[in-house]
């Protein structure tokens, strides 16, 4: 089994017939180039012993605080054959050997794998998942609607009757227009307990990927943004990348209406699937609160490969995990102190 570097043209040709997640497509390199601390590293093809290409993978280099470096294959490798435990292990072995030889200061590789293995560690930070909800768009609009849960159909019907609500695509919006959507994102983060990236990150994504790959949809009430979604599209597959809704949106079913408009638009354009990006599971319960909402649109849960860290230098990786754990404990302790000091 061999791992070989390939150019963009060869990479795309090898993957023909298999949808590439946009993060694994050549277009993503333009976004990597403008994100601070990140850059495109390269593309590789993994060939079986019989010479058949089994997988392709795109890797980005990430520079963390303090100068450590790692590679991130977001939503990759992309398997062109069944990713058996043996094939996944062989690819990682070849990748580790190559990276230790050509770039020995890399600390680890983050990549997706279906099967647990001794060389893999849970990601030290960030969100991953092993289940998601994928709406099948390879059918008519009426069939998609009929296949939804009753509560989903009911929510959409109620929202459609509200004449104060409008929903549509606003791809191509400028920085001033995005500021309104970002305010909704900040409100969502405060409510759900997460901190969004700076607005510039999402504006750069829209600018570098372009309207073919990065789409914005918004639900408004009397002109005010209640809910929005940034949807990534590539090779006939769409992914709900990020979005937000304010407190007013819930009672108005604004998010339900939003995703229904996304589904209708993508379906009309011939897109074959819409991935709602994550559902809760026993291993990853943090997304369980969103599962009920997402399964309104598709009852079935789809098993997917979560992300893992593959240490290249175990001591350095262990030191990073320990430092991150200590930082989290210190932050939590500081939060408790501040809570006690509040009047």
Please give a structural write-up.
This protein is of the alpha+beta class. Helices cover 39% and strands 26% of the residues. It has helices spanning 8-14, 28-32, 85-102, 141-147, 150-161, 175-192, 199-209, 247-252, 254-268, 288-294, 314-341, and strands at residues 2-5, 38-47, 53-63, 69-72, 78-79, 106-112, 121-122, 131-132, 134-136, 165-169, 214-221, 224-234, 237-245, 273-275, 302-303, 307-311. Strands 1, 2, 3, 4, 5, 6, 7 and 16 form an 8-stranded mixed beta sheet that branches. It has a 6-stranded mixed beta sheet with strand order 9-14-13-12-11-10, with helices on both faces. A two-stranded antiparallel ribbon has the order 8-15. Helix 5 (150-161) crosses helix 9 (254-268). The longest helix is centred in the last third of the chain and has 28 residues, at 314-341. It is globular, with a radius of gyration of 21 Å.
What gyration radius follows from the Cα positions, in whole Å? 21 Å
Give the averaged pLDDT, no decimals: 92
What letter string, H or E per element, gives the SSE order? Answer: EHHEEEEHEEEEHHEHHEEEHHEHEEH
Tell the overall outline.
globular
């Amino acid at each position: 089994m061999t791992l070989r570097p390939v150019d963009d043209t060869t990479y795309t040709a090898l993957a023909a017939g298999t949808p590439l997640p946009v993060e694994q497509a050549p277009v993503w390199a333009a976004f990597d180039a403008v994100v601070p601390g990140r850059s495109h590293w390269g593309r590789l093809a993994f060939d079986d012993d019989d010479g058949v290409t089994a997988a392709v993978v795109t890797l980005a280099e990430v520079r963390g605080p303090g100068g450590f470096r790692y590679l991130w294959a977001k939503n990759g490798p992309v398997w062109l054959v069944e990713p058996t435990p043996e094939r996944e292990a062989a690819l990682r072995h070849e990748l580790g050997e190559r990276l230790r030889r050509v770039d020995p200061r890399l600390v680890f590789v983050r990549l997706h794998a279906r099967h647990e293995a001794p060389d893999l560690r849970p990601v030290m930070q960030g969100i991953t998942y092993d289940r998601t909800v994928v709406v099948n768009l390879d059918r008519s609009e009426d069939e998609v609607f009929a296949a939804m849960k009753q509560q989903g159909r009911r929510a959409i019907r109620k929202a459609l009757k509200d004449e104060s609500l409008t929903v549509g695509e606003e791809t191509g919006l400028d920085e001033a227009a995005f500021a309104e959507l970002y305010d909704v994102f900040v409100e969502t983060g405060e409510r759900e307990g997460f901190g969004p990236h700076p607005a510039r990150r999402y504006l750069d994504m829209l600018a570098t990927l372009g309207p073919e790959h990065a789409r914005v949809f918004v639900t408004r009430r009397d002109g005010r943004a209640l809910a929005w979604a940034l949807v990534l599209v590539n090779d006939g597959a769409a992914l709900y990348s990020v979005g937000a809704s304010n407190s007013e949106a819930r009672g108005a079913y604004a998010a339900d209406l939003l995703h229904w408009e996304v589904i209708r638009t993508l379906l009309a354009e011939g897109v074959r699937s819409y991935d709602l990006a994550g559902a809760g599971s026993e291993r990853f319960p943090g997304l369980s609160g969103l599962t009920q909402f997402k399964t309104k649109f598709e009852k079935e849960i789809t098993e997917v490969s979560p992300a893992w860290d593959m240490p290249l230098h175990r001591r350095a990786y262990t030191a990073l995990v320990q430092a991150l754990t200590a930082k989290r404990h210190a932050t939590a302790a500081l939060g408790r102190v501040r809570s006690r000091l509040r009047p």
